[in-house]
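Researcher: Structure prediction, please.
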Amino acid sequence: MVDLHHHLIFGVDDGSPDLETSVAMVQMAAEDGVTHLVATPHANEQFAYDRAAHAQRLQQIRNALPSAIATQIELGLGSDFHLDYDNTVDIGNINKQFAINDGPYLLIELSDTGIPARIDEVLYKMRVVGLVPILTHPERNSTLQRSRGRLREWMKADMLVQVTANSLTGHFGKLAERVAWELMEKQWVHFVSSDAHDLSRRTPRLSAAYEVVRKRMGEDTAERLFLTNPLAVFEGRAMPSQPDPTGVFEEEKKGWLDSLIEHFR
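Model: Predicted structure follows.
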């Protein structure tokens, strides 16, 4: 499995507090079947993002891993990029310093309670500069929990979606679980990640969610969301073809058909 969202780097945000914990988190992930893991420190008003410093700490983690674990798992670097004012005021000049492994893919994060007024402009400018936004845990945002209309519009503009493994298993409550599964069943989800922060409450384990998805939606879906899609992102490759998302493009198709019928009347 491949985990694209993990607060692994110690002492830089609300994730791992020290090197020992970071090493233990990698070991827990590897023992759970994770072969590729992206460290994604927060980039927001509370936690400043310093790519060079984060890369240095990530290398410390690599160096501290037991050799048996180091050979089982590959570590990468990205960010959990919050769409706050400071981060987005000059979004047209954002380069790939926040992206996963210096590739085109960027994890973007909303607050749990709202949506920025400028988000459509921000998403457009990201695509103009060559970034592919991946929205993290929409199932935990209260606005998107009430209505999926905005999410549908962003997906029409090629935004990708990641849900949290623990949402699928009920860890974040019944509402987040229900919304996450609705998105899954509509084929609106491209990745399932851990959003790991620690060793006890928000852990790096993905296998429980993988098994639930496998039983409910089949092996092919589980493999696509936990391995094939996230591996393409980790390696900076184009995404493979995806199932048609239910309810995203139907309105456009209906309008086209109506126009065709009208033309031949």
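Model: The chain has one domain: 2-263.
Researcher: Thanks, that helps.
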